Amino acid sequence: MKISVSDFEKHLDITKERASMETASVDESFEKLMEKKTDPDEYVKIAEVSSSQINSLIIELINSGATGEWTESYVNYIGALKKLNEKITETIVVANLMNSDNNSNSINEIVAKIHQLEIESQDLIKKSDNTRP
């Protein structure tokens, strides 16, 4: 699938907005999971949909044909989305551990990893912004 993009700045801005909405949704759902206000199985379904949406955004960016001056910014943002997807995967691991009544030490370690992935994603977003032409 090839996407025809003529305004790379606008395309990246729209992609960032869509990713931001997905991030807010999954973050809110994860918070409810941690507060035991959302069932772990329900959370996993929400997270899997968000992960699929993020994968679609990655594919769109890869297939956009960004020109040379936009390549670095797009590559950095794709990296940020990949980190976001890693984060979502780790939240699913937490939900599954909660489902199996596993010990909280494992969950705390994974939550720390989730926070680290969030920082790495944010750093790549800043890098993407700073490498825009």
Question: What does this 3D model show about the protein?
Answer:
This protein has 133 residues and is mainly α. It contains four helices and no strands. α1 (8-34) packs antiparallel against α2 (40-62), α2 packs antiparallel against α3 (68-99) and α3 packs antiparallel against α4. The protein is elongated, with a radius of gyration of 16 Å. The relative contact order is 0.15.
List the helices and strands and how they pair.
Blueprint: H1 8-34, H2 40-62, H3 68-99, H4 104-130
Helix pairs in contact: 1-2, 1-3, 2-3, 3-4
| Rg calculated over all Cα atoms | 16 Å
Number of strands: 0
Give the termini distance in whole angstroms: 26 Å
| Residue windows where pLDDT falls under 50 for at least 5 positions | none
Please provide the ordered H/E string of secondary-structure elements.
Answer: HHHH
Q: Quick one: biggest sheet?
A: none
- Give the overall shape, derived from the CA principal axes: elongated
What is the SS-derived class?
mainly alpha
Total DSSP helices: 4
Strand content: under 5%
Helix content: over 70%
What is the mean pLDDT?
92
Task: List the defining traits of the structure above.
133 residues; mainly alpha; 4 helices
Quick gist of this model?
The chain has 133 residues and is mainly α.
